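[User] Could I get a sequence and structure tokens?

[Assistant]
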Amino acid sequence: MALDDSALKGVGKEYKEQIHWLFEWDFERHDTAKIPDDFELQDGTIVQLRKSSISPFTIKANNGSLVLEHGKKFVTEINWLPRPGYYSNKTDDGEVMSKVAQIRGADCLSICYMNYCGYFKTNNQCRFCNIVPTKMEKKGDVVSHKYVEQIGQTAAKAFKDVAKHAVLTGGWLPDGQEIKQCIETINAIKKYTGASNVPGCAITSAPINESEIYDLHDSGIALLAFDLEIWDPKLFNEICPGKSKAIGRERWISALEQATEIHGQGKVAAGFVTGLEPKESFLEGAEYLATKGIVPINFVWSPGPGSAYEDQRPPSAQWYLDLTTKLVNIWEDYGLGSYNSSDPVWCYRCTNNTLYNDEVRKRYGA
């Protein structure tokens, strides 16, 4: 959506600003002026803001309120989200905590323990990914190399302030270093919060060794996710060449199945960047994974600046709505997903770059 300057008052002070903790989500590059990260609709739905100056949707101020318009037509009032208090705190070594870990949506602590992916070194990165270009262009926005002590201290403040759960992720590193770094981060969070486990999801590459899956399970993280991204074998090789060469599709699926046996059905997810393969292909994969107790998740693809697919165009809104309806049908068939889970990680207040929570709430209420 487009943003009128009148709507930006207080962003970065009273209201939560966009911080590029993982990717550049916007459809276009923009200057250093602070813009909101997300906003709240009247029914409590949290919407991730993706800036596009040519969008027919605009947010502007009107008589003391913020309104969303389509063309010149009023759609609804909206609210920016309050800026978390811990954003202004500092770690023991003097780092500003807003640069270490950020709040996604209303209450999810977003932790990218490493803003780098080794696939970029050999030009084998996922073609939709812009984690390294984001890091290069947004200097000072986040701490790209974080010490686990910084993350642990920030998490302790964040959970006292606003966070209810967390998501941890980072780019790929060889020789199991990615999994090791994730587990060290989880241990630091437990150390500084005093908790025996972490209410959140660790999103990593599929472990090569089964022992690493046990290590992740034993770390005390609530959910595991190994994002396959693409189900179709040929498109997976083309769109995710690094994942294909370093790990392989068969091992990826095998790791998901092993993790489900170890960590529990409904507690392991596989994320997909939907819109890059035919709908039927994704739904075929979703059905297969669901039969194994693995939760398939449909993320909405933005052709982000700096990615190889920067200039491509995603499918229509109706395409995504239809896909989401059919995905939740699969969840129901196999007893998976947020409607059938008391786990706080499956939360419509923070998981805001997918549509499944909207469909679930439509069917079952908030």
